[in-house]
Structures are given as structure tokens and as C-alpha cells.
Design goal:
Largest sheet: 7 strands, mixed
Helix content: 10-25%
Mean pLDDT: 90
Shape: globular
Low-confidence stretches: none
Strand content: over 45%
Number of helices: 2
Radius of gyration: 15 Å
Structural class: alpha+beta
Distance between the termini: 47 Å
Number of strands: 7
């Protein structure tokens, strides 16, 4: 018997961080993106709706001179509304090429993404020597 993919995973697979508009059909009107990173306090905070999500990724792009990339590692559904994604972000920050593990906890209710918490592992980020 084949395992059927969790329906919330199908929703998340539409998301391309380089183009947050890929979520327009599945983002709840009252969606909130929570970014938790005490080392980048100018970006930390809550971003509301599609406009907020677009603003967040634009700020990250600006801060990293357009080098920010999300590389998915794993995706795990938990129950009916939570999904955890593990990603490895790469970017050039303050002149240094970096790799950072992060998790995003997603809350999906009735086929809509209601909330997401983006939590980078700031204490173990790695500078890549060129």
C-alpha cells in the first residue's frame, strides 16, 4: 500500500520563497509570518498577510544583496494542522558567505496557511570559506 502525501504538504510544496505570490491561493487573509532572530533585530518580528510575507523576503534579499536561497531538507506533518520544514539557508551577509539551518513551523487550517514561525539556528550558522 502506498502512503498518500499529507494534504498540507501538497499546499506547502507550492511555496517558492523567491516568489511569495506562489502562496496567494492558499494564504489565509489573516496570515502572520513570525521571524525569530535576535542577531538580526532589524528583521525580527511579525509580518501580516501576503504583503507582509513579500516585504519580509524583500528585506532578506536587500540585507543579503539578493544572495538569500532556501534549500529544503525535510518536511514533517504533525497531526492535522502543523508541519515542520527543515531548510538550509545560504546567503552572503556582511561580506561573509554563510549556511544556516532553520526550521519553519507552519499552521495550516482548512487548506489555508494561517501562521508560520521562522526560526534560524543562529548559534551554529557556518561561514563558508571561499
Amino acid at each position: 500500500m502506498m502512503n498518500k502525501e499529507h494534504p498540507n504538504i501538497s499546499i506547502l510544496k507550492r511555496f517558492n520563497p523567491a516568489n511569495p505570490n506562489t502562496l496567494v491561493e492558499v494564504l489565509a487573509e489573516d496570515f502572520v509570518w513570525h521571524y525569530i532572530n535576535p542577531k538580526l533585530t532589524e528583521l525580527e518580528g511579525d509580518y501580516s498577510g501576503l504583503t507582509g510575507l513579500t516585504d519580509f523576503f524583500q528585506k532578506i534579499a536587500d540585507r543579503t544583496s539578493g544572495s538569500f536561497k532556501v534549500n529544503p531538507i525535510s518536511i514533517i506533518p504533525l497531526g492535522d494542522e502543523l508541519i515542520i520544514t527543515h531548510v538550509k539557508d545560504t546567503m552572503v551577509l556582511d561580506g561573509r558567505t554563510m549556511k544556516v539551518d532553520a526550521v519553519v513551523l507552519w499552521c495550516i487550517i482548512d487548506g489555508e496557511i494561517k501562521e508560520a514561525w521562522d526560526i534560524p539556528a543562529i548559534h551554529t550558522s557556518k561561514v563558508i570559506e571561499s
